[in-house]
Design goal:
This protein is an alpha/beta fold. Helices cover 31% and strands 23% of the residues. It has a five-stranded mixed beta barrel with strand order 5-8-7-6-9, surrounded by four helices. A hairpin with a 5-residue loop joins strand 3 and strand 4.
């Protein structure tokens, strides 16, 4: 069956509302307060933030599909936090480079908003441009540069992105770990890694982090009225900054090595929100 988001006449917000209703039915949770998309290296945080009340195969929810990338999980989890609030953890992320269109890329974020979530935490594994960052370093996203030449907004939909990544949430995260640095995330289309020249371009226009996700999702989250926290795990230094070839295996290895530490960090941040 075709994904309804691929039908041009479908309203993607209606599909998100239908997905949210199904999540409420299957989880028994009428409203979620916070949502997390857990990228490479961040998945263990779901086990630390609270008590899982439901684990739902993503393919049972309209608009979702199993992730095509190693390091992501094919489930949606509803978790009760120690403070009594509920978190929705989205493991099934669709990346822009999969070629399914922007609607499917941002469907998780829109569904989270439709479940009632007011805070969206977006995480990823990415390349670092700052030479002081070592693989395994978590970094706060302070802003982004969208290099996909695309947008989740359709028609005359004008959304202000001045403070897209919440300063309040970044400062809160730094009360958990004062050493957290921050930088501007550049989303490239992928799936190929950037060339050294492209990395230098990103650096020259103000970028510090390069990756293939997050920016489009953040725009959709802002459209939905959510407060956004972005975190990148620096899995490698970007092409030309490090002198060895890049590989996805390297990304996964850096994620595994840092997983326990950064997942605990994220769990502590969630507890303060």
């Amino acid at each position: 069956m075709n994904n309804p988001l691929e039908i041009s006449t479908t309203n993607p917000l209606d599909v998100a509302a239908e997905a949210a209703a199904k999540i409420a039915e299957l989880s028994g949770v009428a409203k979620h307060d916070i949502a997390l998309t857990l990228g490479s290296g961040w998945a263990k945080a779901a086990d630390l933030i609270g008590e899982t009340v439901a684990t739902i195969p993503a393919t049972e929810i309209v608009g979702f599909s199993a992730p095509a990338v190693a390091g992501h999980v094919a489930t949606i989890r509803s978790i009760k936090l120690p403070n009594g609030k509920f978190a929705l953890v989205l493991g099934a992320r669709t990346h822009y480079y999969e070629g399914h269109g922007v609607r499917r890329v941002v469907h998780g974020v829109r569904t989270a908003a439709a479940t009632g979530a007011k805070t969206m935490i977006l995480t990823n594994g990415a390349g670092g441009i700052k030479e002081t960052w070592k693989p395994g370093t978590p970094v706060l996203i302070s802003d982004h540069i969208n290099l996909t030449a695309d947008s989740p907004l359709e028609g005359a939909t004008f959304i202000d992105l001045t403070d897209l990544y919440s300063k309040r949430l970044r400062e809160l995260a730094q009360t958990v770990d004062a050493s957290l640095d921050e930088g501007v995330y550049c989303q490239f289309r992928g799936p190929h890694y950037e060339t050294p020249a492209e990395v230098q371009m990103a650096k020259n226009i103000g970028g510090h982090i390069v990756g293939m996700s997050t920016a489009l999702e953040a725009i959709a989250a802002r459209q939905s009225g959510m407060e956004i926290l972005g975190l990148s795990l620096i899995t490698n230094l970007a092409a030309g900054i490090q002198k060895t070839p890049l590989s996805h295996a390297e990304v996964l290895e850096a994620g595994r090595d840092a997983e326990v530490r950064i997942s605990a960090l994220l769990a502590q941040i969630v507890a303060k929100i």
